[in-house]
Write a structure and sequence with these properties.
The chain has 185 residues and is an all-alpha fold. It has one domain: Lysozyme, CATH 1.10.530. The protein is built from 10 helices and no strands. The longest helix has 41 residues. It is globular, with a radius of gyration of 22 Å.
Length: 185
């Protein structure tokens, strides 16, 4: 409740600043720096809270699948969920919605024929197929034999990022680790 009150005060203050400002001032002067900072922080806070709700729903939906695949492939469920959470934007990304691709895996699709959209990402019949393909992809990597059964997610993210899974490995590794920590996967 406090954040709503603070948000209303910030909006009211910004509005009053705009109304009382002279028309000759540049637009950037209508909003004092301090107020802009609070407004930006409030917007980011709102977006992160909305995102965390979306993440929780996503995790609840796919945790049983990730746990099953973890038991079969000996890959930590936290890795399966963390990577899918980031790569699919909690199930909201375009690739996820149009292709059922929860991991950003490159491959064939028929989106060009069906919707006129050209993309390099692989299309799946459903989410389960995407999750299974991700586990099979990891199982083919050199590091898999060494890490199989090890449930330390940091070792897995290091190995996956070093294998060129992402175009920006260091940032990718940090984002996956952060998602796993934040969501207590």
């Amino acid at each position: 409740m406090q954040s709503k009150g603070i948000g209303k005060k910030v909006v009211l203050y910004l509005y009053q600043s705009m109304v009382t400002a002279k028309e000759t001032k540049p637009a950037s002067l209508y909003f004092p720096l301090r107020s802009r900072g609070v407004g930006i922080v409030m917007a980011l806070l709102f977006l992160s809270l909305a995102g965390s709700s979306q993440s929780k729903t996503f995790i609840q939906k796919f945790r049983p699948l990730a746990d099953s695949l973890s038991a079969i492939y000996s890959i930590p469920a936290s890795i399966i969920l963390g990577v899918s959470l980031i790569e699919s934007g909690s199930g909201t990304s375009r690739n996820c919605r149009l292709l059922n691709n929860y991991f950003g895996i490159v491959g064939k699709n028929d989106l060009k024929k069906t919707k006129g959209i050209k993309t390099r990402y692989k299309q799946y019949t459903d989410a389960t197929a995407s999750f299974i393909d991700f586990c099979k992809l990891l199982a083919k990597k050199k590091y898999y034999k060494k890490l199989k059964g090890n449930m330390d997610y940091k070792l897995w993210t290091d190995a996956i990022s070093k294998s060129n899974y992402s175009e920006v490995p260091e940032v990718w590794r940090q984002r996956i680790n952060q998602a796993i920590r934040t969501n207590k996967l």
